[in-house]
From TrEMBL:
Family the entry assigns: Belongs to the binding-protein-dependent transport system permease family. CysTW subfamily.
Region (Disordered) location: 1-25
Ranges that cross the membrane: 41-63, 83-116, 128-155, 183-202, 239-262, 298-317
Function: Part of the binding-protein-dependent transport system for phosphate; probably responsible for the translocation of the substrate across the membrane.
Membrane-protein topology: Multi-pass membrane protein
Record-annotated ABC transmembrane type-1 domain positions: 91-317
Name listed for the protein in its UniProt record: Phosphate transport system permease protein
Broad class of the protein's primary localization: membrane
Keywords for the protein's UniProt record, in alphabetical order: Cell membrane, Membrane, Phosphate transport, Transmembrane, Transmembrane helix, Transport
Compartment(s) where it occurs, according to its Swiss-Prot or TrEMBL record: Cell membrane
Amino acid sequence: METEAAPNDAPPPPTLEHHGASKGPKQIGDRIFLGLSRGSGITLLVIMAAIAGFLSYRAALAISKDETNFLTTFEWNPQGDPSSFGIAVLVYGTIVSSIIAMVIAVPIAIGIALFISHFAPRRLASPIAYLVDLLAAVPSIIYGLWGAVFLVPYLDGLNKWLNEYFAWTYIFEKTNEGIARNLFTVGILLAIMILPIITNVIREVFLQSPKMHEEAALALGATRWEVIRMSVIPFGRSGIISASMLGLGRALGETMAVAVVLSPSFLLDFHILDAGGGTFAQNIAAKFNEANEFGRDALIASGLVLFIITLLVNGAARAIIARRKEYSGANA
């Protein structure tokens, strides 16, 4: 009489090794993919190192011949006799205009992303998302021309209003009667330019928020805002930070739009409504063609500072995300 085999006598299930697969990248396709991936990473590092090396070498040539302090001089005349150039005004103008842009753009971008992803009906959300994508495709020179012809004249009234009611803050005090070719106008223009970039990234992150978390919160009686506050925004924090850093990177390095709108000067003025100021990118674009070899080295030195600032900003963002594990969407 035959008996059934015990469960322990059953043959082991097939494994990957039985099908010819291996744990290591021994197949030709795996080797090619590994080589291409590794080569891409190494190429990126080589390019970054080459850029840093070039900027450092040319900057050292200029700074070694400079008779003033490169970090604190409020003048840009490397072709003078004696030469004198510094980045104090450029650092201030670049950082202030970028901060203004971020303060305006990030909250608006979060609001637009939430509206598209969680509030607007699909028939309305798709056209709005398409319009946001179109804004990202507009060339920066078009933004600059629009800012110079339309935005600058219409901001005179806003500048006067801010000066009338907020002059006590000092930064909104207007001490001259010049038109609105100032850092405040540049910040507003940069906010408009970086808004689609930040919005698109945040929108995609919000769309990936776990639906089960949202449905569970609604089932427990949470309102729509409580669902957003407790489920969607915590999940998307890493995306918000990443999107903000992308926008900040463009704001720091924007050239043509700033060059068209801003009235450049090397007078350090903490009144952001006064005409004047300067940024790294705008100064390089305005002075590069007319500069001699030493002048170009000086401009490259200022570009090195902008390069370092951008690296520090992105490094700080990555450090914030790494230290706060709850920013990760997987842990939301």
